[in-house]
Specification:
The protein is about 75% helix and about 0% strand. It is built from four helices and no strands.
Length: about 120
């Protein structure tokens, strides 16, 4: 009867999904911040925040693919949090989060190496 009234029965699932997405964005920001610090940026925090936003119009292909990977990883993490419960939820969210961030960081590492090798591609 509760489902007929629009209740989902597991309201904590939405909180887990939002928490997982927030954690994903925080980790993404941390990776961008670390990359900016390693490059010797004067204002790494501000530049890392701007890196998370798409400010270029249109974005280069590697930046677009990076954003798609980041969004798909966040969506997969949120879906894992929403679809599971209990201890399985914690494990599923953790594994999905680690895999998503690893794929995203690997792609960005490869894209930076290619961009450094071919300055005409920028």
């Amino acid at each position: 009867m509760e489902l007929a009234r629009g209740g989902s029965g597991d309201d904590a699932g939405w909180l887990w999904a939002l928490g997982a997405l927030a954690l994903y964005v925080l980790i993404s920001y941390g990776l961008r911040y670390r990359a900016r610090v390693r490059r010797g940026s004067v204002r790494p925090a501000r530049e890392a925040l701007h890196d998370l936003e798409d400010r270029e119009d249109p974005p280069p292909r590697q930046r677009f693919v990076s954003r798609v990977i980041m969004l798909c990883g966040g969506a997969a993490t949120g879906l894992a949090a929403f679809a599971t419960s209990g201890a399985v939820r914690v494990v599923a969210v953790g594994l999905t989060l680690v895999v998503g961030v690893a794929v995203w960081a690997y792609h960005d590492h490869r894209a930076e190496a290619r961009a450094a090798a071919d300055p005409a591609d920028r």
